[in-house]
Design goal:
With 181 residues, this protein is α+β, with helices and mostly antiparallel strands. It is built from 6 helices and 6 strands; from the N terminus they run βββαβααβαααβ. A hairpin with a 5-residue loop joins strand 2 and strand 3. Helix 4 packs antiparallel against helix 5.
């Protein structure tokens, strides 16, 4: 836990497994305000962010970027203060020596819902473009694309050993988006 005056360096914090031996995310970060850094399998920094609930943010990042979420470091604070959180975030990025891709060109992949439409197969696209399809048929096709992408993500997470329940918002699937409920 950090007060306004102390800034802990990223290097001094311990790596926490993103998915622990029980297949869970670090529950110690549930409902905790703080700054967190996400690392890949080789412990290369991928993203630095802050949140009013670090645990929920980590869940979102895991489904959006499962191949890059292997380790996490976090610093929590008692009371919400955007200025403190932003200062810690900036300090950690500066300490890293370069802007992590997740904070630069790949930011949307970390912070926005997954656009399943971007992963449409040529066969699905041809079906969607069929002039015989009305609006309802097109919505159904997009929803099925989202379900396929969701199944792929869940399969990757299962292989990683994740045991916790992951539920996507069903209403967003009609527009081809995937985000946790």
């Amino acid at each position: 836990m950090t007060t306004e005056k102390e800034l802990v360096s990223l290097a001094s914090l311990e790596y926490i497994p993103y998915i622990n031996g029980d297949g869970e995310l670090p529950e110690v970060l549930q409902k905790r305000i703080g700054v967190y850094a996400v690392f890949d399998e080789e412990k290369v920094l991928q993203f630095v962010g802050y949140s009013r609930d670090v645990y929920l943010s980590l869940r979102q990042h895991l489904v959006r970027q499962p191949q890059l979420c292997y380790w996490v470091k976090a610093q929590t604070i008692e009371r919400p203060s955007r200025a403190i959180l932003e200062n810690i975030e900036k300090a950690w990025i500066a300490e890293n020596g370069s802007l992590p891709l997740g904070n630069g060109e790949d930011r949307a992949k970390w912070t926005q819902p997954i656009d399943a439409k971007a992963l449409i197969t040529p066969e699905e696209q041809a079906n969607y473009d069929n002039p015989m399809n009305d609006e309802m048929a097109k919505i159904k096709i997009i929803k099925n694309v989202a379900r396929r992408v969701e199944a792929d993500i869940l399969q990757v997470l299962e292989k990683r050993g994740l045991q916790m329940q992951i539920r996507f918002n069903p209403k967003l699937k009609e527009s081809g988006l995937l985000d946790l409920k």
